[in-house]
Amino acid sequence: MIPYIPLELREGWNSERATKSGSNLPQIFVLGCTQRKASLKQMKEDRWMKFQYCVPYILNPKYEEEKEQNTVVEFFFPREPQLPLGCELNWDMDEVEDFTDKLIEDEELSEDKKEAFMEFLNEEVKNAKKNKREARKKRMEDPKYQEAKTYHENMRLYKIYPVQIPNTPVIEMKSHYVNFYYRFAHEII
Description:
The chain has helices at residues 15-21, 37-41, 45-54, 61-67, 96-105, 114-141, 143-154, and strands at residues 2-3, 29-30, 72-77, 85-90, 158-159, 187-188. It is of the alpha+beta class.
């Protein structure tokens, strides 16, 4: 990131001077991209990954919660005299009845243990959902989470387009969207 320095202060500016000034003004950083939009769309995957690596990332608690939607529960069903049956169920995608029928069809589970297995599975899913709710509640009560949330709510993002001069292309549609991590700017300048 490049620190923003107003035009009138740019002459003679250096990093030592900036640290000595001890100003209480907020830090402003500017991110610039000199590549054309068309070339960004045609990037090869490895180049795109390098480009994404350079994009600044902000931990936004609200969007982090949306991303971590883990709905998989792993469990071991005890069965005698055989070894326990290890399974993995995604409670959003799989139905308990269908999942159980598939195990019976694959001869992993016997027909007489179907009801016990389904009851066990429902209990495991219920416990996993409860643990997830408790972890989310605990995370939301954490002071660091609250601090990050407050910081993010108070942060202002500005998207700055170049001033229209004869050498710059005409920008007809100005968008508030910044990128995946920042989402939308508060203001367009």
